[in-house]
Specification:
single chain, 42% helix, 5-stranded mixed sheet, 331 residues, 9-stranded mixed sheet, alpha/beta
Amino acid sequence: MRYDICAIGNALVDLEFNVTDDELMDLGIEKAQMTLMDADRRLELLHRLKDQTPRRTGGGSAGNTIVALQQLGGQAFYSCRVADDAFGRFYADDLAAHGIQSCVHRSKTDGHTGTCLVMITPDAERTMCTHLSVSAELNASDVDAAAIRSSAIYYMEGYLAASPSGLAAAMLGRTIATEVGVQLALTLSDVSMIQFCRAGLEAMLGDGVDFLFANEAEIKAWFGESDFDALIPSAAALAKMVCITRGADGCVILHAGEIIQVASPKVKPIDTNGAGDMFAGAFLYAIRQGQSPERAGALATHAASAVVAQHGNRMPTATLQSIRDEWATAQ
């Protein structure tokens, strides 16, 4: 097996700003969700935030997840789409710097690489305004069948449900993976995807996947249920292993009839951007190392908490590997 994960998702460059709740309201943005925007709205927001120099990082949900897995010592391949522009070159260089194989060398097109304006409020909550640009054109030509067949897990980013061609590409990859017995993983991504793009998520979920990742708000939205305990039996039926993150309360893992609760280290939250992505990457890394769901959850909650305690969606490799080493010695 050449890759632990072959993922497909939106390649986005994150531009992160600090804002107050009042500023967020004044900008007309719904807090704690992802909102798609057009080019004019993107320019408007950038103009109104011009007094800040944003933190710039490689982003995209699946991109964050595979970078985390790669930093921890795994091997990943990424199917995505960038433009032949400054942001696209930045994104491609970032993947290469992390040792991640991808299709970006053949998918560069005219236009603009996707960006995500990430607004961080004082309570550490992240609110995202995304302009997909050429990432919305992700299609079947970006699917690398050989990479999928050479992977243990095929990972689908739920945000692709917002793009007809992106969804079709994700589904093509799902078919290829299923034909050769590659395990399937899906993240629900965001409450907004459940509200507006549920049919696409249901298609990716199909008759079930091996790994499903969601946070508490997303799983409640999926079932239209406010009582977390009441939805557990229904959630367990969605996948062989369901991971539900609950912020400071850690996570719940549903597997083989068990309800596994894993506590989270206590940290002072600064920025929740990328926490769920980090959780998924660390969790799947540990699973690929032959660890139990509980042990995988321990590494994932520790890594996700560390992201929350800093600015930005990713961590320095040395920091993340230190967390891994501490976790390994605690066995």
